[in-house]
Amino acid sequence: MDIARLSIREIRESLAARRYSAQELAAEALRFAQAENGRTNAYLHFSPERAMAAARRVDESLARGEEPAALAGVPVAVKDVIVTRGVRTTCGSKLLEHYVPPYDATAVERIEAAGGVILGKTNCDEFAMGSSNENSAYGPVRNPVATERVPGGSSGGSAAAVAQGTAVVALGSDTGGSVRQPASFCGVVGVTPTYGRVSRYGLTAFASSLDHIGPFGRSVADAAALLGTMAGRDVKDATSADAPVPDYAKLLDGNVKELKLGLPREYLKDLPGETGDLIGRAVQELQKLGCAVREINLPATDYAIACYYVIATAEASSNLARYDGVRYTTRAAGETLQEMYRNTRGEGFGAECKRRIMLGTYVLSHGYYDAYYLKAQKVRSLIARDFAKAFTEVDAIVAPVSPFPAFPLGEKVDDPVAMYLSDIYTITGSLAGVPCMSVPCGKTAAGLPVGMQILTRHFDEATMFRLAHAYETRAS
Ligand code: GLN
Question: In the chain, is it the N or the C terminus that has fewer CB atoms within a 10 Å radius of its CB?
């Protein structure tokens, strides 16, 4: 087996044909992932016992003559902000260095119920705050395509694992772009489903009104299959939606004729050279497939970054208050409760988390709430309205993911605002809560991958996948 290139379909067919067993595949996948990890630092830790137990269950089910389940035997990597029972979950933070959760996230539970084999937990920016994976307390991840460059963030480890071939699919989390941007940088497919499509139960909260769990895959079909197994109402998350989950695989029929696509003027006007050319070429390909393309306006785009960094930091300051040295394992010394609390948080959190806690506390404080937080909420409504209006005219929006491809490690670490600007095209979709994804659309002259973003109406992941799949499998 070509372990680094396996697809979900191939694995299910091979298991059904008894070419190898799920346990053989899991053992080989673990060996390969561990051997390759030194090159990228994509995984923080592995979960061999859990993986082998899951693989054994798949083999037992096959031995009983059952059909392979949707993810039977598929090696999966999980971002370390998603809790796994009995398997350390650090959120890329020193504060949770020794935290072993007593329960599983719903997404994790559903993946294993569908036969998925969780190999380990992937590196990420601390509490998912960042765009380069350089905010991890456990060292940066290297981009497997160009190891002196960042893989993007904050789900950099998951994107790198899938690109490197050490997992077939992976889970990331996206609050303002953290699945789409690393997918674009590493040349894989990354999906941010509709807000509420996938239960957030067990996803460590960063900014709850923006947090999503999203899948990575090397193909649209694989990412869609992973979403299909996780999606749907969960009584443990009141914001999870009770919307029917279609069988995405059946809808990848290649037919996108007459689909109406919108190109946002605001996104394209300042798009630099190579990225702009690649997106332009991808749009021409979509036209060749029969799509009708027109320009649209998303006028509130200019305010998106400011709006996001008020709302996300406000929510983060509240969510991160729970790491107080009393719960969640890590505690620093201190004579008084105050001192212990201050020392724990002072030593435990990295610079970016501290920056956000301070900013968030500030915008929520008396006298500033109306000026910042409330204002940002109003701007968020305007952004959502822009999308709602656009979707009365078009079926999907096509846009860049990031203004630039993967940048060198260290290039933006000292300039948080430059780092924040990486998310200029991804944040709007997150604020509107619409489904969006990154699909690879070529490489720069230096060989760096670039992703195209596709956004559709709330809960219309099916159209998004159909379009991305038609593009991915086009005859060129
Ligand atoms: N880069 C953005 C941030 O730092 C988005 C992060 C995310 O989506 N988790 O907030």
Answer: C
Band (475; pLDDT cuts 50, 70, 90): confident
Q: Indicate the number of domains in the chain.
A: 1
Order the strands of the 396-400 sheet from edge to edge: 43-46, 117-122, 75-79, 169-174, 212-217, 189-192, 436-443, 449-456, 396-400, 260-264, 292-296
How far does the centroid of ligand 1 lie from the alpha carbon of residue 154, in Å? 6
SS3 326: coil
CA-to-CA distance for 317 and 201, rounded, in angstroms?
19
Tell me, what's the pLDDT at 273? Answer: 87
Show the domain range for 233. 3-251
Peptide bond before 402: cis, by omega within 30 degrees of 0? no
154 is catalytic: yes
How many percent of the chain have pLDDT more than 90?
Answer: 95
CA of 174 to the centre of ligand 1 (A): 7
Amino acid found at 344: T
Interval 269-295 mean pLDDT: 94
Determine contact, residues 49/108, Cβ cutoff 8 Å.
no
Q: What is the CATH number of the domain that holds 16?
A: 3.90.1300.10
DSSP character at residue 268: H
Does the structure show a pLDDT above 80 at 272?
no
| Residue 427 included in any domain | no
Contact between residue 453 and residue 437 where contact means Cβ atoms under 8 Å apart: yes
Give all strands (DSSP E) within 109-264, no chain letters.
117-122, 169-174, 189-192, 212-217, 260-264
Q: For residue 436, is it within any domain?
A: no
Is residue 94 in some structural domain?
yes
pLDDT of residue 46: 98
> In terms of pLDDT, which residue wins out, 90 or 254?
90
Answer yes or no: is 172 within a domain: yes
d(CA 260, CA 242): 28
DSSP H helices, 17-154, are 22-40, 48-63, 106-113
Q: Which residues pair with 231 in a beta bridge?
A: 198
Ligand 1 pocket, residues with Cβ under 6 angstroms? 128-131, 154, 173-178, 206, 312, 423
Angle between helices 220-230 and 106-113 (to 10 degrees): 110
How do residues 120-162 score in pLDDT, each as one tens digit? 999 999 999 999 999 999 999 999 999 999 999 999 999 999 9
Q: How far apart are CA 76 and CA 110, in angstroms?
A: 12
